[in-house]
Amino acid sequence: MRCRGNTWFIPYRTIRSRDAQRPHPATFPPELPEMCMRLHGVERIRLAMDPFLGIGHSALAALRLGVPFVGFEIDPGYLEVARDNLKAAAAAPELPLR
User: Do residues 39 and 4 make contact, with C-beta atoms less than 8 angstroms apart?
Assistant: First the structure.
């Protein structure tokens, strides 16, 4: 582990349609929680949890790293998008995320 400093640069895809590509108002790239999990030490994580799952980008990070994960979301629409994203990522990791 090493200190990444106080600013992290995370490249992300430019979006053309917020409704179609980022249906949640507070999205972040899956690379952000992935970097946090790696910094903490993936082998030390017993279970990652996101109490505000949204469209599931923290769950995608956990899936990519093979980390057990549980998330909670009260909005059925966001939960559906999260499930779709996880299914797509499990089937074809190279597909773009919504």
Answer: yes
Q: From CA 36, how far away is CA 83, in angstroms rounded?
A: 22
What pTM, to 2 d.p., does this model score?
0.78
83 near 56, Cβ under 8 Å?
A: yes
Residue 48 burial (CB < 10 Å; 0-12/13-18/19+)? Answer: buried
Measured distance CA(79)–CA(97) in Å, rounded: 14
Q: Are strands 48-50 and 69-71 parallel, antiparallel or unpaired?
A: parallel
Q: How far apart are CA 38 and CA 57, in angstroms?
A: 15
Per-residue pLDDT of the chain (98 residues; tens, 9 = 90+): 566 677 777 877 777 766 666 677 777 888 899 999 998 899 999 999 999 999 899 999 999 999 999 999 999 999 999 999 899 998 876 655 54
Name the CATH architecture for the domain at 25-91: 3-Layer(aba) Sandwich (3.40)
